[in-house]
Amino acid sequence: MTPLSLLVLLVILTCASSQPMPGGGGVGGMIYAKVNTTATIALPQVANYRREVRNAKDVDEEHIFRVCNGKNKKTCGYWENVKVRQGITKKKVASGATTYNKNKKALIVKNMRVTDFGSYMTGNKKTSTFVMNQTW
Fold first, then answer.
1. Is residue 96 part of a domain?
2. What is the pTM of this model?
3. Residue 111: inside a domain, yes or no?
4. The domain spanning residue 89 has which CATH number?
């Protein structure tokens, strides 16, 4: 192989390996967190966030989180089911305590549960980060 062909091969392999990570890339791409620890998920500041996770019965669910702003005290500060199906209503979902830190520009989930791992995104789903369970 000539040096030029090696350079071309290297460029092709580099481009192929720089594909976005699961979760759509976005701000963070993918982060790892452990159960019972705090996850800091870099996402831009918006009024609400979504996540796609698996519940304890191994069923995929979508949840919404509304950031508290002083006007929405009764409907903010917790994750709730988005869809109503098979007797499951739009109700609060058990989760680690979640807040948005303006200084860090990140969604903070304290005491991560096994059911908290999944894809976190802005309310319009344009920016997302996948949170993976770190088992090591």
1. yes
2. 0.76
3. yes
4. 2.60.40
